[in-house]
Design a protein that fits this description.
This protein is of the alpha/beta class. The protein is built from twelve helices and 29 strands.
Length: 422
Amino acid sequence: MADSRRLAPIARDTMAYVLAGGRGSRLMELTDDRAKPAVYFGGKSRIIDFALSNAVNSGIRRIGVATQYKAHSLIRHLHRGWNFLRPGRNESFDVLPASQRVSEDQWYAGTADAVYQNIDIIEAYAPKYIIILAGDHIYKMDYEIMLQQHVDTGADVTVGCLEVPRMEAVGFGVMHVDEKGQITDFIEKPADPPSIPGRPDTALASMGIYVFNTAFLADQLRRDAADPKSSRDFGKDIIPHIVKHGTAWAHSFNTSVVRSAAEYGAYWRDVGTVDAYWQANIDLTDVVPQLDIYDRDWPIWTYADVTPPAKFVHDEDGRRGMAISSLVSGDCIISGGTLHRSLLFTGVRQNSYSKLDEAVILPGCHIGRGARITRAVVDRGVHIPDGLVIGEDPELDAQRFRRTSSGVCLVTKPMIDRLNYR
């Protein structure tokens, strides 16, 4: 008689463990008060919702999230938006803050340590497989396909990978693979990344997604924890050790990327800089964006406030509530202002005669009368004074705000407060 468990999705025997403790310092002031995975994205979501949604949509029903840096807003979001998994259905959702469980003077020392310090919790659930995820990337992926490859190859670890321009790989783990897909070398964040054979301008980069048999990973973490020379990191220590002493296989993102009929490429973004964050949000205003957030077959789950609809008022020349090629969330009131190719999060108020062009406005902002904002990210709760102009004078912008080399301005409450507007 066939084992009925073998006929069930492998995801049901899997725990997803999301690493969400990073600050994301390249996002500058956007992460002064929140961890990178908690940063808002796409009008309603947080960055971490993409990895979590991928897990749930893939059929995984046991999830743990390790937090560390300024985690309050992240933990609050997780409790509000991800509390639908139920122990009575053999499901679980654990938020695992760094809590000095191993040593009274030790927080999470690295990505591997963030799993090791909670290994007893993981083992208590007894998942056969565990998938380690980064909580700070934007993409849609069916993890069940990667899990199936892991089982079929009998790998010690399976590493999610994607092709990137070679010199963009300096911030990734870079790997060599043989003709079968087995990893023969793994280098973490090389200054001069090796290229794919025959393709000198392209490198094979790690996505920070790893699949293990749970028992094998527990052994590796305990071995690593006993090594005083280890930096307690997956990319620097765990994966290179397995490549040398075991079997590591690469899994191509192209194999398991989820696309709707409207999507034409394998979309993956690290929105780790102000420029990349701004661009990824603005890209959603395209007529046919590369990322389809309207895909009902692969929804991006999140916590959403109960809000009234967006509202557009006034219809006079020069004072018309109007949005062109833009995304406007609930509880926004566009009162005689105009916006073009912009994205407004929940609860924004835009007053008369103001203009937004390629602007990303986070929740609860207030845009004053006659203000003009171009190519900018405005942080949560900022009140833009009447008549303020942002994005038209590079020298003045650089004095007042955080201005990137490509001309995108990041605007926060302290920056506005320093202007001393009355």
